[in-house]
Design a protein that fits this description.
The complex is a heterotrimer of chains A (241), B (256) and C (246). Chain A is α+β, with helices and mostly antiparallel strands and 241 residues long. Chain A has a single domain, classed as Aminohydrolase, N-terminal nucleophile (Ntn) domain (Glutamine Phosphoribosylpyrophosphate, subunit 1, domain 1), CATH 3.60.20. Chain A has six helices and 14 strands. Chain A is globular. In chain B, strands 10-1-2-11-12 form a five-stranded antiparallel beta sheet, covered by helices on one side. In chain B, strands 5-6-7-8-9 form a five-stranded antiparallel beta sheet, covered by helices on one side. In chain B, strand 7 and strand 8 form a beta hairpin. The chains are: A alpha+beta (241), B alpha+beta (256), C alpha+beta (246). Chain A: This is Proteasome subunit beta.
C-alpha cells in the first residue's frame, strides 16, 4: 500500500471465473456458470462454485475476480443476517431490492477506486406474487435487465445463440438445453471455460435450487482429431533469401 | 509576452517532450524504505469510467419541449440493452435526459429527484426549470474532481409557459439553448438541428410552434444518427413536456 | 440545583418549569418590550416597515439603517429588542437568502427567510456533542418584522425568541407595540394604498413615541409589489409625510 492513500484491493483481477449466463423460462429463472477458476492461463480450480443463494427467492452468479465474489457474498450474508435480526426473522427484500443494492455497492466501490471486479447476474422469483426478475450488474454499478443475460466472453459468443432460441414459454428442459448449448460453445472457444457446469433454478414453487455440477459432453470424435496432424497434407512454403 | 509558452500546444510539448525518463537503476539504488509499492500492474489500474454511448436530442417549442433519444446502451462493441430510457421526469414540467456513463447517469438522476423532493418539502412549491438548471450546474460542478460522466439536457416549461432547454458539459458548464444534442451522435445531430431550427448564433431565436412537426423532425434526427453511429439505435423514445404534463412514446428504429 | 422553589426553574434554558414553561424564553420576549417601536403594514401595493430610532443624547449621530435593514433585494427587516442579537439573526438570514440565490437562481420566499431566522432563534442551549460551532447559550432577545415581496405577493412576518413566526397584515412590536396595534387596528383596511400605509405607520409612530417625531428619529422602507425591490425612504420624503400628519 502506498502510504497516505486509501486501501484498495483488486486493481487487476487475478483468480478469474469466466462467463456466467442467466435466462427467464416458463417457471422462473435459470442461472448457469462453469466451475473453473483461472489464474492467468492456468486453471487453478476446476470445481469451484460461482453461484449462491442470497435469500430464499434470489440467487446470484458471478464472473470475474473470485475473491471479490466471496467478498460480495459476505456483504450479502451480513446484510441478510442483519435484516433477519432487525425484523425478528421477517424479510422484506425482493429480488429487485437485492439487485439495486448490489448496484449501489458496486457503484460505491468504483467511486473509491476499489472495485469488486465482477460481472454479476441476479435472478429471483417472488414467492408471494410470482414476479420474475433477471438483472445484471457490472463493476461500475451499471444495471441491465433482460430476458437472457450473458457476461464476459459469452456476451460475444452466445448472444445470437440465445437470441434465436429464447422464448418466454421455454420449459426447464428446453432452457437447460440452451444453456448447455451455450456452455459447449464457451468450452470450445474460451480457454478459461471448462466442461463442468452448474445450474441454479429459481421458481415460485421451489425457490432457489442450486443443482449439482455436471459435465457436458463435448463432441471430439472428428476425423481431424483421430488422424495425426503430420499425416495431413499441408503446403509448406519455403522462402528463399 | 513569450508566445512560446502561451499556447496549450507548447505547454503540452514542455510536459511531454522535456520529461526525463528515469532509469531503472535510479530506482533500485534508493534505500528500500523509500521504494514505492508497485501498484501499476502490467494491465494498468482500474479506470472508473466507461462510456455507454447513446444519443439524445431536445428541442424547445413555443409552449412545449420535445426530447428524442435512442434507447441503446453499449459497453465496447457489445450492446448491453436495447430498451434503456435515458430520460427522467424531475417535475411535472421538467425532465432531464443524458448521454454518457449509465451508472453515473442513474446516480445523478436519482440525486436530482431527491433534491427536487427536498426542495418541495422545504419550500412548499415545485422548483422551476430555471431553478433546476442552476441546481444541476452546481451539482455537476460539486464533483469537479471526479465528475459525473454524464452529458445532460435539462428540458422543461419555464414560468412564461415557453419551452426551454439547458445544455451542460460533465463538469457543470451550462447555457440556455433553444435546442441541444448530447452523446455519441451529437456531432451528427448538431448540424441537422442547426439546419432545421433557429437558435445557435441567431440574435432572434424563434421557437417552433407545431409539436407534431417537431416530433417528426426529432424522430428523423435520431433515425438519421442511427444510420451512421453504431452506438445509436434500437428505439427512439419521444418525451413531450407541455402544460398538460409529460407524455412518452417509443418507436422502433434500426437495431444493427 | 437547589430544589423546592419554582423560582429556580428560570436558571437553565433547557429546563421546563412544572407548569410547562421555559422562563428564559418568556424573559427574552419581555426584553422586546423595552425595545423601540417597529411597525409593519402589508397592502396590495407593497409592504411598509417603519422604526423609531431612539436618540438618547443630542451628541449622538443618528446612524442610518441600524434597526431597519436589508436581508435581500426583495426583503427588509425591522427589529425591536437587543440589536446585537438581531444582527446575528439578520446575518444568518442574509447568508441563507444569498445561498438560495446561488443554489436555485431565484429569490428566497419571505416565509422561508423567516423560517431560517426562527430555526436559528430556537437553536440555543448547550449544543450537541461534537458539533463545531457552539450555539447561543441563551435565547435571542429580539423580535423581527420581516417584510418583502415574493411569488405569493407582499408578505409580512414576525419572529420572536421562541422560534414562533406568524404572518400579519399589520404588526407593531417594541415598547409602543400594544398601543400601536390598537391604533393601527382602527385605521387598517385591506385595500389601502401604499402611501396610506406609509402615512399610517408614521401617524402611529408619532402617537406612541415619547419624543417629537422628526426625520432623523424615524425611518421607513417599502417593498413594492410591482418592482419587488426594497427601497429606503429619504429624509425629505419622511419630512413630507410628517408635515401632513395630524
Amino acid at each position: 500500500m502506498i502510504s497516505g492513500q486509501p486501501r484498495t484491493h483488486t486493481q487487476v483481477p487475478v483468480n478469474i471465473g469466466t462467463s456466467v449466463m442467466g435466462l427467464r423460462y416458463k417457471d422462473g429463472i435459470m442461472l448457469a456458470a462453469d466451475t473453473a477458476v483461472a489464474y492467468g492461463s492456468m486453471k487453478k480450480t476446476k470445481h469451484a462454485q460461482r453461484m449462491a443463494a442470497i435469500s430464499s427467492d434470489t440467487a446470484i452468479a458471478c464472473s470475474g475476480e473470485m475473491s471479490d465474489f466471496q467478498e460480495l457474498l459476505k456483504i450479502f450474508r451480513e446484510k441478510h443476517d442483519g435484516d433477519v435480526i432487525e425484523n425478528d426473522g421477517a424479510l422484506f427484500l425482493k429480488p429487485t431490492d437485492y439487485f439495486n443494492y448490489l448496484s449501489r455497492v458496486q457503484y460505491q466501490r468504483r467511486m473509491k477506486g476499489d472495485p469488486l471486479w465482477n460481472g454479476s447476474i441476479i435472478g429471483g422469483v417472488r414467492q408471494d406474487s410470482g414476479d420474475v426478475f433477471l438483472g445484471m450488474v457490472d463493476l461500475y454499478g451499471t444495471k441491465v435487465e433482460g430476458n437472457f443475460l450473458l457476461t464476459g466472453l459469452a456476451a460475444h459468443y452466445c448472444q445470437v445463440l440465445m437470441q434465436n432460441s429464447w422464448r418466454a414459454d421455454l420449459t426447464e428442459a428446453e432452457a437447460r438445453a440452451i444453456i448447455e448449448d451455450c456452455m459447449k460453445v464457451m468450452f470450445y472457444r474460451d480457454k478459461k471455460a471448462s466442461d463442468e457446469i452448474q445450474i441454479t433454478t429459481i421458481t415460485k414453487d421451489q425457490g432457489v435450487k442450486i443443482h449439482d455440477p455436471y459435465r457436458i459432453q463435448g463432441e471430439w470424435n472428428f476425423q481431424f482429431f483421430h488422424d495425426k496432424t503430420n499425416e495431413f497434407w499441408r503446403p509448406i512454403r519455403i522462402y528463399n533469401n | 509576452m513569450d508566445l512560446e509558452n502561451y499556447t496549450n500546444v507548447n505547454i503540452f510539448k514542455k510536459v511531454y517532450e522535456k520529461r526525463e525518463v528515469s532509469s531503472i537503476h535510479n530506482v533500485v539504488e534508493q534505500p528500500h524504505h523509500l521504494l514505492k509499492d508497485n501498484t501499476q500492474h502490467a494491465k494498468g489500474g482500474f479506470n472508473p469510467y466507461v462510456n455507454n454511448q447513446g444519443t439524445t436530442v431536445a428541442i424547445a417549442g413555443k409552449d412545449f419541449v420535445l426530447v428524442a433519444a435512442d434507447t441503446r446502451i453499449s459497453q465496447g462493441f457489445n450492446i448491453l440493452s436495447r430498451d434503456y430510457s435515458r430520460t427522467t421526469k424531475l417535475t411535472d414540467q421538467c425532465v432531464i435526459t443524458s448521454g454518457g456513463m449509465v451508472a453515473d447517469i442513474e446516480t445523478l438522476h436519482k440525486l436530482l429527484i431527491a433534491k427536487v423532493k427536498t426542495y418541495q418539502r422545504q419550500f412548499k412549491k415545485t422548483p422551476t426549470v430555471e431553478s433546476l438548471a442552476q441546481l444541476l450546474g452546481n451539482t455537476l460542478y460539486g464533483r469537479r474532481f471526479m465528475p459525473y460522466y454524464a452529458f445532460n439536457l435539462l428540458c422543461g416549461i419555464d414560468q412564461n409557459g415557453q419551452g426551454s432547454v439547458y445544455g451542460y458539459d460533465a463538469i457543470g458548464s451550462w447555457d440556455k439553448l433553444t435546442y441541444g444534442v448530447q452523446g455519441s451522435g451529437s456531432e451528427l445531430g448538431a448540424p441537422i438541428l442547426d439546419n432545421q431550427f433557429v437558435g445557435h448564433n441567431y440574435l432572434v431565436k424563434t421557437l417552433p410552434d407545431d409539436v407534431s412537426v417537431v416530433e417528426d423532425t426529432g424522430k428523423d434526427i435520431i433515425n438519421s444518427i442511427a444510420e451512421r453511429d453504431i452506438y445509436t439505435g434500437d428505439q427512439v423514445e419521444i418525451v413531450i413536456v407541455d402544460k398538460n404534463g409529460i407524455r412518452v412514446k417509443r418507436e422502433p428504429i434500426r437495431r444493427d | 440545583m437547589w430544589m423546592g422553589s419554582k423560582e429556580h426553574y428560570d436558571r437553565g434554558v433547557n429546563t421546563f418549569s412544572p407548569e410547562g414553561r421555559i422562563y428564559q424564553i418568556e424573559y427574552a420576549i419581555e426584553a422586546i418590550k423595552f425595545g423601540s417601536t417597529a411597525i409593519g403594514i402589508r397592502t396590495n401595493e407593497g409592504v411598509v416597515l417603519g422604526v423609531e430610532k431612539k436618540l438618547p443624547s443630542k451628541l449622538m449621530e443618528p446612524a442610518k439603517s441600524e434597526k431597519l435593514v436589508e436581508i435581500d433585494r426583495h426583503c427588509g427587516c425591522a427589529m425591536s429588542g437587543i440589536v446585537g442579537d438581531a444582527r446575528i439573526l439578520v446575518d444568518h438570514a442574509r447568508v441563507e437568502a444569498q445561498n438560495h440565490r446561488f443554489n436555485y437562481a431565484e429569490a428566497m420566499s419571505i416565509e422561508q427567510i423567516t423560517e431560517a431566522v426562527s430555526d436559528l432563534a430556537i437553536n440555543f442551549g448547550e449544543g450537541y456533542e461534537g458539533t463545531k460551532r457552539k450555539p447561543m447559550a441563551r435565547p435571542y432577545g429580539v423580535a423581527l418584522l420581516i417584510a418583502g415581496v415574493d411569488d405569493n405577493g407582499p408578505q409580512l412576518y414576525q419572529t420572536d425568541p421562541s422560534g414562533t413566526f406568524l404572518q400579519w397584515q399589520a404588526r407593531a412590536i417594541g415598547s409602543g407595540g400594544d398601543t400601536a396595534m390598537t391604533y393601527i387596528k382602527e385605521s387598517y383596511h385591506s385595500n389601502m394604498t401604499l402611501a396610506e400605509a406609509e402615512k399610517l405607520v408614521m401617524q402611529t409612530l408619532k402617537s406612541v413615541m415619547e419624543e417629537k417625531i422628526q426625520s432623523d428619529n424615524v425611518e421607513i422602507s417599502i417593498v413594492r409589489t410591482d418592482t419587488k425591490r426594497l427601497e429606503t425612504r429619504t429624509q425629505e420624503y419622511v419630512n413630507n409625510i410628517i408635515s401632513t400628519l395630524a
